[in-house]
From TrEMBL:
Signal peptide: none annotated. It comes from the Bacteria. InterPro entries: RutC-like_sf, YjgF/YER057c/UK114. It comes from Prauserella sediminis. This is Enamine deaminase RidA (YjgF/YER057c/UK114 family). One of its GO terms (molecular function) is deaminase activity. Pfam families: Ribonuc_L-PSP. GO terms for cellular component: cytosol. Coiled coil: none annotated. Belongs to the RutC family.
Length: 137
């Protein structure tokens, strides 16, 4: 499976975080659009109120989806993260950095947008992550 090509245009500033400005899927590639994953276990129970713990579980759930699709994390071309409240962002970033060290050891990251929000679909949820993934066609 060919990976996406990260691209950071010279005409704009380098990314200020762990993302690429643009991620180009290979020609002829199919894409899967993964709905927002949340910090619940296989029984659907929220793992913790902690944003850090929920983020780790959310990435674990996303990894399970990738495994089911038969692809590695390097097949992710775009992510969107929603974090409840400004106070949760540092915990999200700490958990993300731990996962990214394993998923993207070369420092080549997918395109990624992140935002803080006032709430998610359940009042105890602290983070939600969706992804666009290149999959075998």
């Amino acid at each position: 499976m060919s990976k996406h090509a990260p691209y950071n245009p010279a005409a704009i500033a380098a990314p200020i975080g762990k993302f690429s400005h643009v991620a180009i899927a290979p020609a002829g590639a199919a894409t899967a659009y993964v709905s927002g994953q949340i910090g619940v276990d296989t029984d659907g129970k929220i793992v913790s109120y902690s944003c850090y713990e929920q983020t780790k579980q959310t990435f674990s759930n996303l990894e399970a989806v990738l495994d089911d699709l038969g692809v590695e994390p390097s097949a992710i071309v775009k992510m969107l993260t929603l974090v409840v409240g400004d106070d949760g962002f540092a915990d999200f970033a700490r958990a993300r950095d731990e996962i990214y060290a394993r998923w993207f050891p070369t420092g080549v990251y997918p395109a990624h947008s992140a935002a803080t929000v006032t709430a998610l679909a359940h009042p105890d949820l602290r983070v939600e992550i969706e992804a666009v993934v290149v999959v075998p066609s």
